Each structure stands twice: as C-alpha cells, then as structure tokens.
C-alpha cells in the first residue's frame, strides 16, 4: 500500500515542483571524522547524563520511604518521561545525526519513533505544567487542596497527562496527517492543521499555564514578603524590649517605659502567633524561586524549537523541510537538554532528593531513611532555635 501511494505521489511531486523530491535529499550534512567525534561525544554525554539523573530520581522515590508520597508522583512521572526520551529517542537521533541526517531504520519504525518522541517530550512538558498548578494550589490553598495527600487522585492526574500526550501521536498513525518518510527522511507531519494542534497542545498551552501559575505564585510570595516585613522588630539597643521579651521583667513605671513594654509584649505575642504564617511565607518564597528557574529553563530550552516547528510548514510546505539540518538538530538537542536539567533542578532544591542522590552515588544504600529522618530533625531544631532567637 505504501509503495502504491509513493508511486501515486511521484507524478504529483514532479508536476508541482521538479526539485521537491530532492529538497529532502539535499538536506544531508557530510561531517568530517573530527566533527563526528566531537558531535558524537557531546550528544552521547547529554544522553548518558539524562539517563543517570532521571534514573536516580525514579530509584530514589521508589526505594526511599520518606520520598514515597503522593506529592512526588508528578516528579516520578516527569523523570519517567525524560528517561524515556533518553532511552527510546536520543540513541536513534544520535545515529541519524552522525550519518548526516539520513534515516536508516525504515518507514514503519519512523512512525513508531516519531510517536515515541512526540509522546515522551509532550508528557515531560505537560507534567511540568501540572507540577506548576500543583505547587500553586498546594501553597495558596493548603487546607482545601487534598490531591497532594491523595495517592489515587494524583495517580489519575498522571494518567491524564500521559493520555493527552498519547493523543497527539495518534493522528499521523490514523491518516489525518501522515509523517514524511521519503528518501531516507523521517520527519513529523508538516500538515498545517496538525502542526498548529500538536504544537499548541504540546507546548504553547502548557507554557501559558506555567507562566500564569508562576506569576500568581510570585504575586503571593511578594504579598507575603510585604506582610512579614517586620520593620518594628525590637532593636538590639532597645533594652526595654529585650527585658520584656526575654525575661518578662517589667521595666520601671514611667509612662514612656510602660508604653514601650506594652508594645514589646504585643510584638512578642504577635510573633509567637505568626510562626505558622512565617513557615507558609518561606514555602511561598521557595516555590516561587524553584518554579521560576523551572519555567525559565524550560522556555529557553524548548521555545526556539517549537517556534521553528510552527513556522516550518508555512515556510517549506507540507512535503519536506527547508530549514538547515544543523539548525534543526541544534534546536532539537537544546530541547532534549531540558530532560537533563530537570532532575538537577529538583535535586538542588529538594534536600531529601539531594541527600538520597549523594548516598546512592556513594553506594550507601543502608539506613537512607534513618539518615533522612535525622537530617529533617536537625533542620527542624535549627529552625526552632533560629525562630526562638528572634524573641
């Protein structure tokens, strides 16, 4: 059937554009031996580090009891998507790049490869989107947002993410928009309608949601910063306040000192009652900082590629790509690099993950849970001592 379709398409291609059949063939880059070595080493390092980092995330959450909580299901889903990209997609891209852009694995596997590429990358992007929504609701509605504590609901969210990601891969497999698989070229369908649909669902909509969530978390953190900017804290040189707060000894009965003592006692009571709000404030600040780095890194990695993918059908038509191969591959690998960066970001901002990574890399498998519990208790004691030092 595919041969018959190819034979039917050949006359049409010759009538429409005599050079169209060679456009894809011309998009081949002949690298020298030195270039192949440099490019091969660089993209192989990206692939291996991506596998290692995301494997550590999955192993850590699955083996460490403290990390096996519903709030980390999305983190595991993100790591699984990025790991799938590294295992099922990147090796074939490496081979294709090193032979100058020729697809060597046949038409049937080309469709499978594109489906895996689109589904895994989309799942990674959409999981980042859901994580941003989850962080926002968990911080702004800690009492009315129960999903973070309900494993079944969180699992359903992960399932919906992968279902939506898979839905983007189905149209080319069922005839809406066929992938380009001619002349050893493996290219996702360049149909204008499908391109708008796939890039919108896979990138532009999730990115918009992530930016909105980050903006709202940033506003919440900024409002909390204004609320908790204690400009009237007792100064070290204010002896009356120190006496009032620390020892409870009443200063001499003068009008000025009595007023200072009342203000000091009121402030002390306020600080003690506001301890919970300070913790929420710190969580908001950390979430805003973490999500800001995630959104910024994600945008830098994927925006150039999706801008090119959206513009390509309008610039080149629906049969082949007229974008230089080196530019396509550079932007594609920039997007793949996001799968490498994601576990590094979460390990950097999550102390438990960071500690677990370090222990696993040092082959200290025993008593990881006990060490994490001890570290958490130590941090809690430090926070308590620091808070008590204010009074």
Structure report:
Belongs to the G-protein coupled receptor 1 family. Keywords: Cell membrane, Disulfide bond, G-protein coupled receptor, Glycoprotein, Lipoprotein, Membrane, Palmitate, Receptor, Transducer, Transmembrane, Transmembrane helix. GO terms for molecular function: G protein-coupled serotonin receptor activity. This is 5-hydroxytryptamine receptor 7. It is found in: Cell membrane. The structure is a single chain. The chain is an all-alpha fold and about 400 residues long. The chain has one domain: Rhodopsin 7-helix transmembrane proteins (Rhopdopsin 7-helix transmembrane proteins). Helices cover about 75% and strands about 0% of the residues. The protein is built from 14 helices and no strands. It has helices at about 1-15, 20-25, 35-65, 75-90, 90-100, 105-140, 150-175, 190-225, 240-245, 255-275, 275-315, 325-350, 350-360, 370-390. The longest helix has about 40 residues, at about 275-315.
């Amino acid at each position: 059937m595919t041969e018959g379709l190819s034979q039917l398409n050949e006359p049409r291609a010759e009538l429409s554009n005599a050079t169209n059949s060679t456009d894809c063939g011309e998009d081949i880059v002949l690298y020298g031996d030195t270039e192949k070595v440099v490019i091969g080493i660089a993209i192989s390092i990206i692939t291996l580090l991506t596998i290692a980092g995301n494997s550590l995330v999955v192993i850590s959450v699955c083996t460490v009891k403290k990390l096996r909580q519903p709030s980390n299901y999305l983190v595991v889903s993100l790591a699984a998507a990025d790991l799938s990209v590294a295992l099922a997609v990147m090796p074939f891209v490496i081979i294709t790049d090193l032979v100058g852009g020729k697809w060597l694995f046949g038409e049937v596997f080309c469709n499978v490869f594109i489906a895996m590429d689109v589904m895994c990358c989309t799942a990674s992007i959409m999981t980042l989107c859901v994580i941003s929504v989850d962080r926002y609701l968990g911080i702004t509605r800690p009492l009315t947002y129960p999903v973070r504590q309900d494993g079944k609901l969180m699992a359903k969210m992960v399932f919906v993410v992968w279902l939506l990601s898979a839905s983007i891969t189905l149209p080319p497999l069922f005839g809406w928009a066929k992938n380009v698989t001619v002349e050893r070229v493996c290219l996702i369908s360049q149909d204008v309608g499908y391109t708008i649909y796939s890039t919108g669902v896979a990138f532009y909509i999730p990115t918009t949601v992530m930016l909105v969530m980050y903006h709202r978390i940033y506003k919440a953190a900024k409002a909390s910063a204004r609320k908790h900017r204690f400009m009237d804290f007792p100064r070290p040189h204010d002896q009356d306040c120190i006496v009032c707060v620390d020892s409870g000894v009443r200063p001499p009965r003068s009008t000025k000192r009595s007023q200072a003592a009342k203000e000091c006692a009121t402030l002390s009571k306020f600080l003690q009652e506001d301890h919970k709000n300070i913790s929420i404030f710190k969580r908001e600040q950390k979430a805003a900082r973490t999500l800001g780095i995630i959104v910024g890194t994600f945008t830098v990695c994927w925006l150039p590629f999706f801008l090119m993918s959206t513009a390509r059908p309008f610039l080149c038509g629906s049969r082949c790509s007229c974008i230089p191969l080196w530019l396509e591959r550079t932007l594609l690998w920039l997007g793949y690099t996001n799968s490498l960066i994601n576990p590094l970001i979460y390990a950097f901002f999550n102390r438990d993950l960071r500690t677990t990574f370090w222990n696993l890399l040092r082959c200290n498998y025993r008593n990881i849970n006990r060490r994490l519990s001890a570290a958490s208790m130590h941090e809690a004691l430090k926070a308590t001592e620091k808070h008590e030092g204010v009074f």
